[in-house]
Design brief:
The relative contact order is 0.09. The chain is flat, with a radius of gyration of 29 Å. It is an all-alpha fold and 137 residues long. It comes from Parabacteroides hominis.
C-alpha cells in the first residue's frame, strides 16, 4: 500500500546520512584550523593567575530540586483547590448544564494550577534569595 513512498524515503535518508558525514568531517577540519591559528598567536602571560582548579571543599547548593518541589506542591494545591471549587459548584446547582459546567470547571482547574504553580515558584525564589543572603554573610 505504501510502496510508492519507500523508495524516495530510503533514497532521502541515504543522501542525508552521506551529507551529514561529509559535513562532520569538514567542520572538524575547520575547527582544527581555527585551533592551530589561535595556538600560534597564544601568549601564556595572559593566563597567569587566572587558571585554577575548582575548589571542592566549598559546598555548592543546587536549587533545582527546591524549585521543582515548590512547583509540584503548587500544582498539587491548585488541583486540590480546583477540585473543591468544582465540588462546591456541582453541589450548589440543582439542574445539570453539562457544557457550561464543563467550561467553568476546566477554567477553574487551569487557572488554579497556573496560579498556585506560579506561587510555588515565587516561594522557591524567596527561599533561594534568603539562603544566598545568609551564605554571603
Amino acid at each position: 500500500m505504501m510502496d510508492f513512498v519507500i523508495v524516495p524515503l530510503t533514497t532521502g535518508i541515504v543522501f542525508a546520512a552521506i551529507y551529514a558525514l561529509f559535513e562532520l568531517f569538514v567542520r572538524r577540519k575547520e575547527r582544527m584550523a581555527i585551533i592551530e591559528k589561535i595556538g600560534e598567536n597564544l601568549n601564556n602571560s595572559a593566563f597567569d593567575g587566572k587558571l585554577s582548579l575548582p575548589s571542592y571543599g566549598i559546598p555548592r547548593f543546587s536549587f533545582n530540586s527546591l524549585k521543582a518541589g515548590c512547583l509540584l506542591m503548587g500544582v498539587g494545591v491548585g488541583l486540590m483547590v480546583a477540585f473543591f471549587l468544582s465540588l462546591m459548584l456541582a453541589a450548589s446547582r440543582r439542574e445539570f448544564d453539562f457544557y457550561n459546567e464543563y467550561q467553568v470547571m476546566s477554567t477553574a482547574y487551569g487557572a488554579s494550577v497556573l496560579l498556585f504553580g506560579g506561587l510555588g515558584l515565587i516561594v522557591a525564589f524567596v527561599i533561594e534569595t534568603n539562603m544566598k543572603k545568609k551564605e554571603d554573610k
